[in-house]
Design goal:
Elements lengths: L1 H11 L7 H32 L4 H13 L3 H11 L8 H32 L3 H35 L5 H31 L2 E2 L2 E2 L1 H27 L2 H5 L2 H4 L11 H8 L3 H18 L5 H9 L3 H30 L1 H25 L2 H28 L6 H33 L3 H23 L4 H20 L1
Antiparallel strand pairs: 1-2
């Protein structure tokens, strides 16, 4: 009774609202994820393919394992709803997951060295394929650790914010993700510059590469873990509204995975928003697999020049996210902002096509800059809407489901981009027309996403989910 009365007193006290400094501090977590994505998905991939001559399909397949375990996001989200860890619903999972995924990045690098040594010594032998399998397992574990950390972190953002300041929180936190990617890109470019100089003839000196690259995979993950720890230290204790909002906080043992999933599926809005996120994310990222080849084949750009195209898109995205959270979302609202971003992105896809027919690199760069701005607007709007489409008792479960949709879509986007390009190359002899089929498909997909979003109703979602929670509690009382 004493515990209950103390909590009642706490609930009656107004909780402090997030200030801009706390939002920036929370953004350090996303900044860390941006750095890790460049180190693991960029540097390791490049080392395997360029320096160690691992077959691109096998290298990409091993790394992609971190996406194939994305269904675990729902489980980790539900666990953070129901089972506190280290005394916290969210923070304990964030820290433990971060400790594992930063450690696993170094372990994965050591497996890459063993893979390279086996390939140099034995060629494509049973042992070499075994090392590929071990690397795939390491990336699967990396994906699980990433899910265990990032899903509760997103749920924490729901817990500590209110609907009126959530757009600003999203704008700041997701802007820091782009900052992390830029920092990671600078580090990886310098690292790869020194690494490629170490190649001696046709065979790379792996020991020399290890001397250069191993320290980076010790120092940078350690810094990233420090960022994750600093980002969330004390935030949940001071700002979380979880106990105040949840009707089942004293009944955590009752929120099983099965019951959380029943709440998740109680509203048709869940399926609609899941589908919207799937179509939206596929449409936004179809260009990832084809943009650099587009720059090379249609515009005659060098590898260095096509790599720089990412900077224009990234700069636009950063400006789009930051400005939308503070300037656009408060005026237009989340659904209208997201729809506007989708329409603008579809128009930018047309500009990118026009740049190809005009053979104008400057128009291509402008198109990518504005596509990034539109993408940033979509990211800020859709993420804010995603955080709204939760219910306090099962916020982690819902965030896990939305994260699953996005992870699946990112994997499918690369495949879809390649498939559409292949189809375009079969149908059309001119490269510019073949590549244009991908950008046309992007534009169509974005307009389909607008149509799906028009059917999403946040009020209906919350009413259905709350009714499911009430029915669950009533059933337990009966």
């Amino acid at each position: 009774m004493e515990k209950l009365s103390n909590q009642s007193i706490q609930h009656n006290k107004p909780l402090p609202r997030l200030n801009i400094l706390t939002m920036l501090r929370l953004g350090l977590f996303q900044m860390g994820l941006g750095i890790m994505s460049l180190l693991t998905l960029g540097v390791l991939n490049r080392i395997m393919i360029d320096e160690l001559n691992v077959l691109p399909l096998l290298a990409a397949g091993a790394i992609a394992m971190h996406q194939f375990v994305s269904p675990a996001r729902v489980l980790f989200g539900q666990m953070s709803d129901a089972k506190p860890l280290l005394g916290y619903h969210r923070t304990g999972y964030v820290w433990l997951g971060a400790a594992f995924f930063t450690s696993l990045s170094f372990i994965a690098l050591q497996i890459v060295w063993q893979l390279g040594s086996s390939l140099q010594t034995n060629g494509w032998s049973v042992m070499t394929y075994t090392w590929i399998g071990i690397l795939a397992l390491a990336f699967a574990l990396y994906g699980l650790a990433l899910s265990a950390s990032s899903t509760p972190f997103a749920a924490l953002l729901v817990d500590i914010s209110d609907e009126d300041n959530r757009p600003q929180l999203v704008g700041v936190v997701w802007s820091m993700l782009m900052v992390g990617i830029v920092v990671g890109a600078i580090i990886s470019s310098k690292l790869l510059g020194s690494g490629t100089e170490m190649a001696t003839g046709a065979t790379v000196d792996i020991a020399q590469l290890q001397t250069s690259i191993n320290p980076v995979f010790i120092l940078m993950p350690a810094i990233v873990f420090g960022l994750c720890f600093l980002a969330t230290l004390g935030v949940e204790k001071k700002y979380s509204r979880f106990e105040m909002r949840s009707s089942m906080v004293e009944r955590e043992d009752q929120i099983t995975l099965g019951r959380a999933l029943s709440v998740l599926t109680a509203s048709r809005q869940t399926g609609l928003f899941f589908s919207f996120l799937l179509v939206l994310t596929i449409s936004l990222f179809m260009q990832d697999a084809v943009m650099e080849p587009y720059g090379g084949q249609v515009f005659g750009m060098s590898i260095a020049q096509t790599t720089q195209l990412n900077a224009f898109f990234g700069m636009g995205t950063l400006l789009g996210i930051a400005s939308t959270g503070f300037l656009v979302l408060p005026r237009l609202g989340k659904p209208r902002t997201t729809k506007l971003g989708c329409i603008l992105a579809a128009l930018c896809a047309i500009i990118i096509i026009a740049a190809g027919f005009a053979a104008s690199p400057s128009l291509l760069k402008s198109g990518l800059l504005f596509f990034g701005l539109a993408s940033g607007m979509i990211t800020a709007g859709a993420t804010s809407l995603m955080l709204d489409l939760t219910i306090a008792e099962t916020a982690g479960t819902f965030i896990g489901a939305w994260g699953l949709s996005q992870a699946l879509a990112r994997g499918l986007a690369t495949i879809c981009g390649g498939l559409v390009l292949n189809l375009g190359q079969i149908l059309f002899k001119e490269p510019v027309i073949a590549y244009s089929t991908v950008f046309v498909a992007q534009a169509i997909g974005l307009l389909i996403a607008v149509s799906l979003l028009g059917r999403v109703d946040v009020k209906e979602f919350k009413e259905n989910a709350q009714a499911a929670i009430s029915a669950m509690m009533q059933g337990d009382l009966d």
